Amino acid sequence: MLVGAGRAHLHLLRALARPLVRGLEIVLVTTDRVQYDAALSVLAELTDIIPPDELSVLEAVLTVLGSPDSAEAKSVSLAALPAAELLGKQPGPLGGSTSYYSFLLGIVLLGVERIEEARELLTRFANESAANPREWGITLRWEIAKARELAEGTDD
Fold it and tell me: Which of 37, 41, 121, 138 has the highest count of CB atoms within 10 angstroms of its CB?
């Protein structure tokens, strides 16, 4: 996640993203809102360095978060679902049953309207991440809060 005030940080993101291959998370946050459209624009410029499966998942996540009830969100989520399930159901690196990809899978599941499954996974991700002593409550702070918000705010 890149926290900052706007366009100046896009250049920083581009510079930092070049050597990265796996596990790249792109969400631009300003002091007043999350810029999902801007993040999608940057993601489109990084297609040569992000593996296609991760790219489809990231595109779906950003689209669902930016336009949750749109036809596009459902379409890209359906396309990304196989990759999201493969990545998101693997155990976490810190010993939990969830990982960062579980958070992303939960959002993709919302996009395909598998609400109960998404709610359970997002809640479990938030609880495990918040309780993990190696997390310290800062690295995944935004993701934990967003997972809880999404799990509580979904309708049946």
Answer: 121
Q: CA-to-CA distance for 140 and 39, rounded, in angstroms? A: 18
- The four Cα atoms 112, 13, 18, 37 give a dihedral, to 10 degrees, of 30
Per-residue pLDDT tens over the stretch 100-118: 888 999 999 999 999 999 9
For the chain, domain boundaries: 77-156
- Answer for the pair 84, 63: CB distance below 8 angstroms, yes or no: no
Strand locations in 1-156 (E): 2-3, 28-29, 34-35
Contacts 24+ apart (CB under 8 A), 15-19: 17/46, 17/49, 18/49
Q: How many CB atoms lie within 10 A of CB 11?
A: 9
